[in-house]
TrEMBL record:
Domain RNA polymerase sigma-70 region intervals: 27-84
Family matches, as CDD domains: Sigma70_r4
GO biological process: DNA-templated transcription initiation
Protein name in UniProt: Sigma-70 family RNA polymerase sigma factor
Region (Disordered): 312-333
Keywords: Sigma factor, Transcription, Transcription regulation
Gene3D superfamilies per the UniProt record, alphabetical: 1.10.1740.10, 3.10.450.50, Winged helix-like DNA-binding domain superfamily/Winged helix DNA-binding domain
Subunit structure: Interacts transiently with the RNA polymerase catalytic core formed by RpoA, RpoB, RpoC and RpoZ (2 alpha, 1 beta, 1 beta' and 1 omega subunit) to form the RNA polymerase holoenzyme that can initiate transcription.
Transcription regulation among keywords: yes
Native organism: Streptomyces mobaraensis
InterPro entries with a match to the protein in the record: ECF_Sigma-70_Domain, NTF2-like_dom_sf, RNA_pol_sigma-70_dom, RNA_pol_sigma70_r2, RNA_pol_sigma70_r4_t2, RNA_pol_sigma_r2, RNA_pol_sigma_r3/r4-like, WH-like_DNA-bd_sf
GO molecular function: DNA binding; sigma factor activity
Every RNA polymerase sigma factor 70 region 4 type domain range: 131-182
Family statement drawn from the similarity comment of this UniProt entry: Belongs to the sigma-70 factor family. ECF subfamily.
Length: 333
């Protein structure tokens, strides 16, 4: 892995020509990606990055301190361990969370087609932060999750991870094996073509909002599961995941009867996948991400985030983002 930093914005108010700040800024995108994959929360990730910055600044400005030969490795170690320390707080918070907990949606950019990007690079940019994968990572222990993210997503060697976590390479290999087996048993290696996923998402929304139950029955896999995260703040949100096509269709039919009168649908990339962001007036109403089966012809997972606290970072429009045709009616053409 290269030690060359990438450009970015620090957001910490230090002078732009300060070398300490420039080094941190260069690795901020990498640190954000690693920590977000470990925590699934943008706000907590930002807090960890703030703590990492403060630790980095103190170390860099300490008089008589030895130069840091590998700033990337040093910063990643700080960020990963800060994230692990925060896990206990997050675990307690989620134990008292009302209803299903889903990761905070993260607007990203996805390629137009799987043919336009190398398979390994596609996995890094899309699968690494997909909503479906993050839900599965929630079932790992904090150490297993850290090892999986560093090794499977970012390509760190077991020896590098051992140094970051202060564990032996053999212990890291065992953690990696357990995490990989757990994840792959629940999510086969598969990435749907983005164009297909966009088409299925449009068809799903048209059927759900139009209460076309027969079309919904065709779109949904028999063992489909729907997660709805309202955080106890949205009355229509289910308190636990619902599994089975018939049950999910009944749930969607109930939602359709309680939705606001006018919805505006925008299609954007969320956590690396083509997704739908539905607005009611000027506020985001729901972020909807679908997970397809390995054939790509049916929906096996529906992730609906309606908790307003998790939608505060979702803007109504992006640069060059115009209204979708048929959006005002809540139905894509």
């Amino acid at each position: 892995m290269s030690d060359r930093p990438t450009s970015g914005a620090s957001g910490f108010g230090a002078p732009a020509d300060d070398e300490t700040t420039e080094v941190f800024v260069g690795y901020r995108e990498l640190l954000f990606s690693i920590v977000y994959n470990m925590l699934g929360s943008v706000s907590d990730t930002e807090d960890v990055l703030q703590e990492t910055w403060l630790a980095w600044e103190r170390r860099s400005r300490r008089r008589g301190a030895e130069p840091i030969d590998n700033p990337r490795a040093y910063l990643v170690r700080i960020a990963v361990n800060q994230a692990l320390a925060r896990q206990a707080t997050l675990t307690n918070r989620r134990e008292t969370y009302v209803g299903s907990w889903l990761p905070e949606p993260l607007l990203t950019h996805a390629p137009e087609s799987t043919e336009t990007v190398d398979a390994a690079d596609r996995a890094l940019r899309a699968e690494s932060v997909s909503m479906a994968l993050l839900v599965i990572l929630e079932t790992l222990s904090p150490l297993e999750r850290a090892v999986f993210v560093l090794h499977e997503v970012f390509g760190y060697a077991h020896t590098e991870i051992a140094a970051i976590l202060d564990r032996s390479p053999s212990a890291v290999r065992q953690l990696a094996h357990r995490a990989r087996e757990h994840v792959h048993a629940r999510r086969p290696r598969f990435q749907a073509d983005p164009q297909v996923q966009r088409q299925v998402t449009e068809r799903f929304l048209a059927a759900a909002l139009g209460e076309d139950l027969s079309d919904l029955m065709e779109i949904l896999a028999p063992d489909v599961t729907m997660w709805t995260d309202g955080g106890g703040k949205v009355r229509a949100a289910g308190l636990r995941p619902v599994t089975g096509r018939d049950k999910v269709v009944r749930l969607l039919a109930g939602y359709a009867g309680r939705r606001p009168g006018e919805l505006d649908v925008r299609y954007r990339a969320v956590n690396g996948d083509p997704a739908a962001v539905v607005f009611s007036e000027d506020s985001p109403y729901v972020v909807l991400v679908l997970d397809l089966n390995t054939r790509g012809d049916q929906v096996r997972g529906i992730y609906a985030v309606t908790n307003p606290d998790k939608l505060t970072r979702i803007p109504r429009a992006e640069d060059g983002d115009g209204p979708e045709q048929g959006a005002e009616a809540g139905r894509p053409d």
